[in-house]
Amino acid sequence: MATYRSVFDAAELRAQFNAAGINTKFMASIWKYVLQNPGCELDEIPDLPSSAYRLLRTKFKPFTSTVHSVFHSTDGVTTKLLIKLQNGAFVEAVIMTYDTRLGKYGGKPRLGGPRSTLCISSQVGCKMGCKFCATGTMGFKNNLTSGEIVEQLVHASLLTNIRNVVFMGMGEPLNNYTALVEAIRVMTGSPFQLSPKRITVSTVGIIHAINKLHGDLPGLNLAVSLHAPVQEIRCQIMPSARAFPLEKLMTALQTYQKNSQQKIFIEYIMLDGMNDEEQHAHQLGKLLETFQVVVNLIPFNPIGSSSQFRTSSDQKVSDFQKILRGTYNIRTTVRKQMGQDISGACGQLVVNLPDKRTRENTSLLTDIEDLRI
C-alpha cells in the first residue's frame, strides 16, 4: 500500500515542486483551498499547472490524519481531539477556551471575549520519561511529520477559530526539531497567518536546540518545564535532566533571553513534599532573579491510582506564589485546571478514553496570552 505525504508537509511539497519545475507559490493556495474545503480532492483545487495535479495525485493527500473522536469537558471550556495518524497511531490535541476580558491591561479589563488556544502534540509518546506525566508512561513511539503537526491545527480550526498555539501536548517538541520548525513556519505563513508571539514551544530543556531556536524561529515564546530549583530533585522527577545539567540549562536560557529580548515562561509542577516547600520557593527565586520570567505554578493532575505523587495543597501553592512574588518580585501565576474529566489537563495526555468525573467550575479562564501583558 502506497504511503502518501500530507499536503501540509511543506518541506516535501516544496522539494517535489522544485524537482518538477512547479512554482512553489502555489503551495499557499493549495493549503488555503484545503482549509476552506476539508472534504475536497486535490484534483478540485483550481488554477494549478497540469503537472501539479499529477504530482499531487500520486504523492500527496489533503489529510493523512483523521479525527477519530471528540470529547467535550463538562466545564464547557475544553475539547480534546483524538487524532488517528496514517500509521495507525493516535495523538491528542486539546482546544482550551479562555476569556480575554479576564486579562488586564493598564489595570483595566481587556476588551474582547472568548478565544481559543490549541495544545498540539509533536510526537507519539515521549522519551523524556517525566514521572509525573502520563505521556511518559507510553514510551517513545515516533516523531510526527511537519504535516501531521499542522493537520492538528487544521482539524481544530474546523471546530473553532484558533488564536494561540502551544506545543505542550504529547512529546518533547525540541526532540522533533526539524519538523517543529517547518510546521511553525507554515503556521505563521499564508493562509494561517499566526503571529509568532501567539505560538509557545515548551521544552524540558534540550540545550543544543534552545541554542539555535531563536535564530530559526524568532519572536515565538519559549516555555521551560523546570519543575525543580536544584539538579538533584530535577533528576528524581525528570530522568532526562541528567543529560541537561541545570547550570548549563540556565546559561543557555541567559543567552536565549539576551538574543531574543523576550520573557521566558517557567513551568513548575507542584508535587506535595517533593518540590513545594518554602525552601524550594526561595531556591527557585534565587535561581531566576536575574531573568525576565513568568513562573506558572501547575497543580499536579493525577495520572492513575498508582501515581507516586500527591497534589500540593492550595495553601502550599499560595505560600509558594507569595514568596516568589513578594521576596523576589517574580511574576507568578497558578494554572487553572481545565479538562481533567476528559484527561485533557496538563500531564494527562495519553491515548485513552476519558473518565466520567464532573466539574463545577464553568467560568472562562485567562491563558498564556494574558501573561505577556
What can you tell me about this protein's structure?
It is a single chain. By secondary structure, the chain is an alpha/beta fold. The protein folds into two domains: 57 residues, no CATH class; 307 residues, Aldolase class I (TIM Barrel), CATH 3.20.20. It has ten helices and 16 strands. The strands form four sheets. A ten-stranded mixed sheet has the order 3-4-5-8-11-12-13-14-15-16, covered by helices on one side. Strand 15, helix 10 and strand 16 form a beta-alpha-beta unit. The radius of gyration is 21 Å and the shape is elongated. About 5% of the residues have low confidence.
Keywords:
4Fe-4S, Aldolase_TIM, two-stranded parallel ribbon, 2 domains, metal ion binding, 21% strand, 373 residues, transferase, 30% helix, rRNA processing
